[in-house]
Amino acid sequence: MIHIDRVAKRFGANTVLDGVDLRVDPGEVVSILGASGSGKSTLIRCINGLEKLDGGAITVDGHRVDDPKGLREARRCCATVFQLFNLYPHMTALENITLAPIEVLRTPRRQAEDEARALLDSVGLLERAGAYPSQLSGGQRQRVGICRALAMKPRYLLLDEVTSALDPEMTAEVLAILAKLAGSGTTMLFVTHEIEFARHISSRIVFLDGGRLLADLPTARFFAPDGGLAQPRIAQFLSRMSKS
Question: Which domain holds residue 72?
C-alpha cells in the first residue's frame, strides 16, 4: 500500500502540496487529475523520493521515503515512467531495459535479456531491441520506458503524464499498453490529462486543485452529477478539458 499522510511540499513561498492524504491499495488504478500546476507531478516525485517533503509522511509498503533505508526499499516496490522518456541515448532499447535489473536486482544478464525481450514483444517492439532511442518514434520510446519500469517487477507503477509529449497516434499506442496493464491487475498511480482514458481504466479518480486534494472518489461517482460534478471547480475543469 502507498500511504500519503498530510503531505506538504513548498518551493520557496509557493506551496505546491498542502496537506494531501491518499491511499493506494494493491490492484487499484488511481488517476490523478487537475490543472497544470496543481501539484500532480510533484506528488509523484515525492513518492519516489525525487522531492523532499516539507511536512507529513509517505510510506510504501510500510517503508518511509524520508528515511534513506526506507527510500531504498520503497524504490524497489515502485517504478516510474516519466513524460519525457529519459532513456539513455547511448544504449539500445534492450540495454536500457536490462541496466537496472542487472545492476540493482543482480539479475543474471542472460535472464535479464530474456525478460526484456519478452517485455518488448508484449508491446510490439521485439524487432527494435537493438535500436537506439534516436532511431525510435516518440511512442516507441515511451513503450520502451514502460518496459524498463516493468523490468524491475514493481508492485506499483507511477506514471507522470506519459502521453503529454506524444501526437494523437502515438498517444493511442501508449494508452493501449496501459489499458492492457490495468486489465492485468497492475497497480498504477496515473497522472494524466486524458480524461476519457482515466474514466475507462481507473478504479478511483483523485482531483488536486492548488495543491489540495479536492476529491477522491470511485470513478463512476466522480463523473456523476451528484458526485464530483457537483463541485463547481471539478465541473469547470472537466468542461474546459472537453473543449480542448
Answer: 2-87+154-243
